[in-house]
Write a structure and sequence with these properties.
By secondary structure, the chain is of the alpha+beta class. The protein has one domain: Nuclear Transport Factor 2, Chain: A (Roll), CATH 3.10.450.50. It contains four helices and eight strands; from the N terminus they run ααββαββββαββ. The chain has a six-stranded mixed sheet. A two-stranded antiparallel ribbon has the order 7-8. The N and C termini lie far apart (57 Å).
Length: 145
């Protein structure tokens, strides 16, 4: 069962994020799924879709790469990296058309072939800092180049 659960977690990233199949959200989340994201609780596919839509409206060329996936019983932990281009203002920040990288770890509990609970921890602050960063010269002890 652990291997099947690990494959479902990997499929989530491939179908929902890499292929942007919005309908995959309903295929893989149970109606009562609770996802803990940044201090908030997202309930079910209806609650997750607005998050998906904001990300899709902000970033194109999104590619999530699974670095590690560990499964035990009904739990799966996935460590991932993501490269994407900031092409929209879905986060309330004007598009920069720059390419960015971020990292994250997601844990999910799977029951009857669907994700029923998820915990999401990713470096959104680092991503926002990359978006807002101004080009600057390299600085060395007391001197700018």
């Amino acid at each position: 069962m652990s291997e099947a659960n690990k494959e479902l977690a990997k499929r989530w990233f491939e179908e929902v994020w890499n292929k942007r199949r919005r309908e995959a959200i309903d295929e893989m989340l149970s109606p009562n799924t609770v996802i803990y994201e940044g201090g908030e609780q997202i309930i079910g596919p209806e609650g997750f879709r607005p998050f998906f839509d904001r990300m899709a409206a902000s970033f194109s060329e999104m590619r999530i790469t699974i670095q590690d996936a560990i499964a035990e019983a009904d739990m799966v932990c996935v460590r991932w990296t993501c490269r994407m281009r900031h092409t929209g203002d879905g986060l309330g920040i004007p598009a920069s058309n720059k390419q960015f990288d971020t990292t994250g770890i997601s844990m999910v509990r799977i029951q009857d072939g669907k994700i029923v609970t998820g915990w999401q921890n990713w470096d959104m602050l680092g991503l926002i800092q990359q978006i807002k960063a101004e080009p600057r010269a390299a600085t060395y002890i007391g001197a700018s180049v």
